[in-house]
Amino acid sequence: MNKQTxxxxxxxxxxxxxxxxxxxEAFTDIVCYLRGANISEYNxxxxxxxxxxxxxxAQKRSxxxxxxxxxxxxxxxxxIIENLPPRTIKExxxxxxxxICWCISxxxxxxxxxSNDTISLIRNLIKGGPVNxxxxxxxxxxxxxxxxxxxxxxIVETIxxxxxxxxxxxxxxxxxxxxxxxxxxxxxxxxxxxGKTTLFTVNIFTACTFTLILYIIHKILSRIQ
Amino acid sequence: MIPxxxxxxxxxxxxxxxxSHKETYGYEISQELQEYGFSNISEGTIYPLLLRLEKNExxxxxxxxxxxxPKRKYFSISQAGKKELDNFYKNWLELENAVNMLFEKGEDNxx
Lengths: 225, 111
What we know:
The structure holds 2 protein chains of 2 kinds. By secondary structure, chain A is mainly alpha-helical. Chain A is built from 10 helices and 2 strands, in the order H-H-H-H-H-H-H-E-H-H-E-H. Chain A has helices at residues 3-16, 21-35, 41-60, 65-69, 73-82, 89-114, 116-127, 139-161, 174-194, 204-224; strands at 134-138, 198-203. A two-stranded antiparallel ribbon of chain A has the order 1-2. In chain B, helix 1 packs across helix 3 (43-55), helix 1 (4-21) packs across helix 4 and helix 2 packs across helix 3 (43-55). Chain B has helices spanning 4-21, 26-35, 43-55, 79-110, and strands at residues 24-25, 59-66, 69-77. In chain B, strand 2 (59-66) and strand 3 form a beta hairpin. Chain B has a single domain (4-110), classed as Winged helix-like DNA-binding domain superfamily/Winged helix DNA-binding domain (Arc Repressor Mutant, subunit A, Orthogonal Bundle). Helix content of chain B is 66%, strand content 17%. Chain B is an alpha+beta fold. Chain B is elongated and about 60 Å long. Chains A and B meet through helix 3, helix 4 and helix 5 of A and helix 3 and strand 3 of B.
């Protein structure tokens, strides 16, 4: 997010606090849907600013969001998106690289911190035992990272594209939820069991530098977009 | 109430006409249209059309501080917008004339 977009985002977040309880859910759904649209973050914030002005003015006239926007929020959003320039291939590519770098840097940092090798390294440094700066990266670590990043993409996309449907169906199929959760658990247990084999070892300082570089790339890309 | 399908092609021209009177904003445009008989035209109905007019450079927009809180977007008509408005009105008169002729002459022929 560049400086101009960040400033607009900050102003909008402040204004968002003034949206009353009755309008909040519908407005959040609208913003979620716009976040998933193929438009730049700056245009998303500009639209958000206009909508906030419309809704807050309506609140002052004691009108609700339906009186301003109508009943079909999705059609309203699609009509808006249709009249905004779509993101270019370059913008999409940079955004994708930015998210990947961010995700991998976070997962890498977590893996460094919770690794058994890091824990024994700290223990030996305190006790004065023999120190080994090498970290083992297993097949399981790599497969889990790929699954987590892919799943995060799919979940976010699904929520954003279906913001007007999700949560509206109050009857939750408990068996379906249990089966999904059990399948996810089974996959991770399988990975943990099968993926114990060390794929490669890496020096802890190299791993930290790699994580830092990815984080810096994310920071730079998010500022220039 | 005018059916939305019928309104589709004409609403942009009517919005352009309202903006040509003076610099104005979304809610004021919807209110003015309602005063002229366009019932049920909400701010949300005209907002995407305002974006389209802006994209096609027929109107220009400027954000101004609003006494009520968030910045408000004010619209003015551009030179291209004035030309488009003349064009729209010419086309409208032609359509109005054709429809009237059809109904009037159609009535005479039936009698």
